[in-house]
């Protein structure tokens, strides 16, 4: 066991912070992501626990990797929910209201942010972005010589454990469910990690094949977790009120380690509320999609002007190809 793993073990014992204090699983403002701040400023703004701050101060790659994981989770959340009523509004008052409930959207946020942390730190280790870790075990010398490396999922899991604190003994009902959903994100990263290979040789031959283990892209994980969100499993109050070991066992019986769980039915997100801005003036694609997105209110058509480039390719002998800017008028559907 190296020094860093010993320190991580010590932190896991002494860490007494509450669950879910980072990125999308926190109600805190995310404006610190846009600032060119120091590691110390970032740590304070992100409200990271004191017991883990030393890692971020000693290695600037820690703060940058965590910041990247939050940005990646936000971008993925917005992308996969773009055509749905709940389109991942990230303003803190919306997030806070969602995170206080056990909605399926709450489950998605915890799982997505957890998976982003594991993926980004696993890749940062293999690429040298974080100094205190390296390639995962099993990386061959041939792979290292070619600059390829197993992504270090184990290290990513270690960082995640410090942030969400698996070791807490006393947990509220919602904390227990949130922890389960964060674990779902971790499990799916592991399950979708694949073996990649490259061939080396003359004239395209495969005289030598170099292989390594690579974590999935956030796009793939986001789409997968979104499907799991739609099919999330409801956990009733009686299961959460079980005492002792039966409490966690009851949750595992109802939902597998690959299934997201919820405790409360989600609102319809049709109207402006503390959970979202509603769907008024949202853009929809076709009649079928508009019927669902607009909540039966109908839609209106609007002609809009968009700017494009290279709408005409004009070639003149002796002169370079010109790509003039031009405008295009399109018709869009907007929810009433």
Automatic annotation (TrEMBL):
Pfam families named in the record: wnt
Superkingdom assignment: Eukaryota
Leader sequence residues: 1-20
Protein keywords: Developmental protein, Disulfide bond, Extracellular matrix, Secreted, Signal, Wnt signaling pathway
GO biological process, any: canonical Wnt signaling pathway
Subcellular location: Secreted, Extracellular space, Extracellular matrix
Entry similarity comment: Belongs to the Wnt family.
Function, as annotated: Ligand for members of the frizzled family of seven transmembrane receptors.
Protein name stated in the entry: Protein Wnt
Organism: Dimorphilus gyrociliatus
Organism phylogeny: Eukaryota, Metazoa, Spiralia, Lophotrochozoa, Annelida
